[in-house]
Write a structure and sequence with these properties.
558 residues; alpha/beta; 7-stranded mixed sheet; 6-stranded parallel sheet; 9 helices; 20 strands; elongated
Length: 558
């Protein structure tokens, strides 16, 4: 081993300085000799005299010169001079130290025994580390590791260039724990220096970023011009809408707000698999709608050509009753508190209605549409901040409009929120629906023409894909439970947010929602809840990673 060589070189030099080696004939029966030997491994230089009867084949020093009397060779050393007669087979020194070795690779002398064959010595005049020494950062022969100046008891690699062993009481970088002699199956730390399930220590659990549930509210105009459009909805709502959302793995449910019955009577009937009516059952609809709890609900109420906004507000809490009294307290009964809300407006007309003392009228103009949409957004959020968002910044709904706008290019392509308001109407529409368009743009929904029912497949497909893509990430996570017999330190909980492709950011814990800011969270009802501004940040990053870190005690079993 290299370390053993260095140790031997040190012993020789120190022995020579102390005079402890004098009088030793080295085991080969040779007489005393004269030579100058310098060893830098122990930073010691000493001069010894010796005469040798061995026959030298050559003595060579790369850093000095030597003169010798020998039977078949010569040697020179520019850094020290010496004379000797020898019969040894070789005497070699590559780092300013003389090594006279006999046939068994040992150098002996009556005054001292020396070996300076280790080329991994340090020059005491410069302090540099020549290649090949432990600590030079290179993995040399005989070393298990070498991290240069990082070597030490807390690193992976020790000062002796051997991997720091498990059980030394130091927690090295490659270890989870190290209790020294207490490591074992009855401790919190295993014999392999891994934290055992019975222990806690510093733990972390990745928070799964899953889309929030989506509640989809569909408002369909029951006026006399809507027969073909209603039929188009019935034909596509399962295959080209619900099925797409279902395949995406989204947790969704649909609430239909429109009069129930035959499409030929401008009413709506939804079959399985979305609705509870068997396939073909809407040819002659049952006496009342059949809900599919957890997936589809029908709130039967008449929606005329211009009052869908007002009916949505009035039926929300049951001010206007469901014909079949399925939800006496309104369709809010079926909403989930944690869901994102998606409205789909289907009408060929404009906005003009009043409810609860407020009027919404787009006046069939672009400016009027913006004014009406702004006022309605305020009213909808005020109706239920929990469901629709308290502020514009945390608005919790998107409004999609299948209305009387002219076709896009290509015709099956929907208009996005950044596209301008469409001023031309499609061929069978009454109006372009300025109010609906503006509400879609400000809430992030799509707009599409409803006139060509042959395009409903691609339109509903586009809406479904948009709903999936815009599904918001959840901002609440269960606090990981501590192992059995351990106590979770609530003050130790941290949340690390790693943006896509960037460095982690630590969210700090605050005592309550009132103290929230953009990079904080709080604990409530056993949940880690991100503050609203922090929630908005992660919801805009679908590839974000969240990790909840915590500590519990004790590491050693109770």
């Amino acid at each position: 081993m290299m370390s053993q060589k260095r140790a031997l070189g040190m012993w020789v030099c120190l022995g020579a300085l102390a005079g402890g080696c004098s009088g030793d004939d080295g085991g080969d029966g040779s007489a005393s000799s004269s030579a100058t030997i310098t060893t830098t491994a122990a930073s010691v230089s000493t001069t010894m005299s010796a005469s040798a009867t061995d026959s030298m084949t050559g003595a060579t020093d790369n850093s000095g010169s030597m003169s010798a009397s020998e039977s078949d060779g010569s040697a020179t050393d520019t850094s020290a001079s010496a004379s000797a007669s020898a019969t040894d087979t070789s005497a070699t020194d590559t780092s300013a130290s003389a090594s006279a070795t006999d046939t068994s690779a040992s150098a002996t002398d009556t005054a001292a025994s020396a070996s300076a064959t280790d080329a991994t010595t340090m020059d005491t005049t410069t302090g540099d580390l020549p290649p090949g020494i432990c600590g030079d950062g290179e993995l040399n022969d005989g070393e298990e590791c070498d991290e240069g100046p990082e070597n030490g008891p807390m690193a992976n690699c020790g000062a002796d260039c051997l991997l720091n062993p498990c059980g030394d009481g130091y927690v090295a970088q490659h270890e989870e724990c190290d209790l020294g002699g207490e490591n074992g199956p009855d401790s919190g730390c295993s014999e392999e220096c891994a934290i055992l399930p019975s222990a806690c220590g510093n733990q972390s659990a990745e928070a799964v970023l899953t889309p929030r549930p989506v509640d989809i509210i569909i408002l369909i105009d029951n006026s006399g011009s809507m027969s073909a459009e209603i039929k188009g909805v019935e034909s596509n709502i399962n295959k080209n809408f619900a099925e797409i959302i279902n395949k995406a793995g989204l947790d969704y449910q649909v609430i239909m707000v429109s009069r129930y019955g035959k499409s030929s009577s401008y009413q709506v009937c939804i079959e399985a698999p979305l609705g509870g009516i068997p396939l073909g059952g809407c040819v002659n609809p049952p006496a009342q709608p059949v809900n599919n709890p957890g997936k589809f609900y029908h709130y039967s109420v008449t929606v005329n050509s211009v009052n869908s906004w007002c009916q949505a507000l009035a039926t929300f809490d049951g001010a206007v009753k469901d014909v079949y009294n399925f939800a006496p307290n309104g369709w809010r009964t079926w909403l989930r508190d944690d869901s994102f809300k998606v409205f789909i407006e289907i009408t060929d007309d404009r906005v003009s209605c009043s409810v609860a003392g407020k009027t919404y009228n787009d006046a069939n103009t672009n400016a009027g549409g913006l004014t009406a949409a702004t006022a309605y957004d305020v009213s909808l959020r005020a109706k239920s901040p929990l469901h629709f968002g308290e502020t514009i910044e945390n608005r919790n709904y998107a409004w999609y409009s299948l209305v009387g706008v002219g076709p896009n290019n290509p015709p099956e392509k929907a208009y996005g929120p950044m596209d301008p308001i469409v001023t031309n109407k499609c061929n069978t529409a009454v109006n372009v629906g300025y109010g609906y368009q503006h509400l879609s743009n400000m809430s992030g929904g799509l707009r599409a023409p409803l006139c060509d029912t042959t395009k409903y497949d691609s339109i509903f497909l586009g809406i479904a894909n948009s709903v999936v893509a815009d599904a918001k990430l959840g901002c609440e996570f269960t606090i990981p439970p501590p192992p059995e017999g351990k106590t979770l330190d609530l003050d130790s909980i941290d949340v690390d947010y790693t943006p896509d492709g960037q460095d982690p950011v630590m969210f700090k814990k605050v005592a309550s929602p009132d103290l929230c800011d953009a990079d904080s969270f709080y604990l409530e009802d056993g949940l880690v809840k991100l503050c609203p501004a922090a929630c908005m940040v992660i919801q805009g990053d679908k590839n974000a990673k969240l990790e909840v870190e915590f500590t519990c005690e004790p590491l050693k079993p109770n």
